[in-house]
């Protein structure tokens, strides 16, 4: 895994960056600490993080107004040796206008998704021991809805990404439970369960803000 694939679109780079923001700032309460007004000048301040929970999903924005990076995200964990270990991080971001690539079906013009809403890009982060050629398959309520190819791997893990067409986005929004199917380097197939509860209102919020 020494050779890493290069991200081939600006949209992809932005989405991966937003997922890194989510991972870096994730904590059990997703709370924010106020900065005292008399804080010493020159002290480095953490970027402002806005967070809103929609059942099992979080809608989060980072950055100043007008340049915010926003996403809807969820982290699936398993217990190992008494600790919770992240096995699947999912983040959905609104694609910038005009970022639609050739071959993406089910979208309108200029990166628009269903009913004129901004298109959506799903990014997934998994551990390093996955078998790259198999990709990541996602089922919603037991039915296959998407297949993501791995883009690259780094110290954080292996990244997979997919621009969601209208059919796939609708299936995820209407579902209640889902699972990610991955193959490990030893040939073992693993199903990682995650929830779709709250995804629809979270994405509605994401797309309404991105459309402004």
TrEMBL record:
InterPro entries: IalB_sf (IPR038696), Invasion_prot_B (IPR010642). Keywords: Signal. Pfam families: IalB. Residues 102-117 have a biased composition (Basic and acidic residues). Residues 98-117 are annotated as: Disordered. Residues 1-26 form the signal peptide. This is Invasion associated locus B family protein. It comes from Rhizobium anhuiense.
């Amino acid at each position: 895994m020494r050779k890493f694939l290069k991200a081939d679109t600006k949209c992809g780079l932005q989405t991966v960056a937003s997922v890194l923001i989510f991972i870096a700032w994730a904590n059990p309460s997703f709370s924010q600490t106020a900065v005292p007004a008399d804080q010493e000048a020159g002290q480095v301040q953490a970027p402002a993080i806005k967070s809103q929970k929609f059942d099992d999903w979080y809608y989060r924005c980072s950055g100043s107004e007008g340049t915010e990076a926003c996403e809807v995200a969820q982290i699936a964990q398993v217990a190992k040796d008494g600790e919770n270990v992240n096995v699947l991080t999912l983040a959905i971001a609104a694609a910038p206008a005009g970022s639609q690539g050739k071959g993406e079906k089910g979208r309108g013009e200029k990166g628009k998704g269903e009913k004129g809403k901004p298109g959506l890009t799903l990014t997934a982060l998994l551990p390093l021991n996955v078998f790259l050629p198999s990709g990541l398959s996602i089922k919603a309520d037991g039915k296959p809805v998407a297949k993501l190819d791995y883009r690259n791997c780094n110290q954080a893990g292996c990244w997979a990404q997919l621009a969601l067409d209208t059919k796939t986005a609708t299936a995820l929004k209407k579902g209640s439970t889902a699972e990610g199917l991955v193959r490990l380097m030893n040939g073992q197939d693993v199903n990682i369960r995650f929830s779709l509860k709250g995804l629809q209102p979270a994405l509605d919020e994401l797309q309404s803000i991105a459309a402004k």
